[in-house]
Amino acid sequence: MSDASRISRQLSLCAVMETIVHSGPISRASVAKQTGLSKQTISEIARLLENDGWIRETGRTSGHVGRSAVTYEIVPDAACIAAVDLGGTKARAAIADLSCNVLAELVEPTDEKGGVHVVRQIARMCRDVARHNDIDFEKVRLAVIGVPGVPDPDTGRVLMAPNIADIETFDVVDKLRQELGRDVFVENDVNLAVLGEHWIGTGSGVDDLAYVALGTGIGAGIMVGGELVRGSAHAAGELGFLPFGADPFEPESLRVGALERVTATFGMRDRYRQLTGKDEDVPGIFDAAASGDAAALTVLDETAKLVARAVAAICAVTGPGRVVLGGSIGSRDEIADRVREFARLCFPREIDIAVSSLGTQAAIVGAAAVGLSHLHATLFSGGVPGAAIALPPRDVVKFGGARA
């Protein structure tokens, strides 16, 4: 087969597969109508995909004049992806199939020992979530791991991750590949979250988008023109290092970030302790605020003002059409409502500020999107430039699944 024929064949295969993924169950005639390919080409490709186990017959069309036609759909669990969201306090692992369904999910506290112990925890959780839900781990072709730091593509290390001990000291990517026995992609967790929100969440259809996560830390995922912004050092969106909040010239600000020191979990607890002399966790601070506690209300106001300044900084530089707030703290109405109020006072234009619709699954959804794109390219594009399968639209995806 000539190169031109091979490229044409691969492009046709991807077009057929994409149509079945997006529109199945679907007949060959309908695939031909949508792709513009001949019925003979469709039949040959459908036979190939069926023989290889990627699609299957689902029945026959009905309600039409003339003979009924065989319909096809994707075999969802022909291949799977492990998606992991590693946080400073919790780790979340999930298995997603080719139809973008989360088949199973497992959540547990992040190993406090950090470093290689966390890597082994991730690998174990991926296997556990499969085993507990009767998923053949051999079908898991790759893993996408979201981390609360900056993955260094040259060394495989995860930098600027103060909430995970010793994660900066070794090649995390290589160790994960050894532990999992699979190809592994490591990405910043908030970058994954903005991809998830852009795909099927609150930011769906908004190509200039920012996702601001506030929880154990603070960070942002930023998209411009539908493309993720990473920056030359892959550290774009590290809001914790904005030079306000705490003194940016103090050594602790270089380690954690001046803004993160005063806005995230530990900053809120420290501020409440300063005002009251009491130790309280963040949920307790929110409960106290709901009861009218003046110190707790001050903590929420001060936190929201700082987040509003960070949002205004993003808007001044990238001009997003929407800013999505997420994370265990940022997604709470008590914070989101205040951020909207304070943003109006420090930025001259109206900012569309919304709360994440994906919640704790935002990074998992983004990891699935990255994984599916890589998996489709590996399985069906054959290395041909331009041969790709687009992710299905929001109204086709059924995201959610069992918990282990």
Automatic annotation (TrEMBL):
SUPFAM superfamilies, A to Z: Actin-like ATPase domain (SSF53067), Winged helix' DNA-binding domain (SSF46785)
One matching Pfam family: ROK
Any coiled-coil regions, as ranges: none
Protein origin, superkingdom: Bacteria
Entry similarity comment: Belongs to the ROK (NagC/XylR) family.
Name assigned to this protein: ROK family transcriptional regulator
Organism: Hoeflea poritis
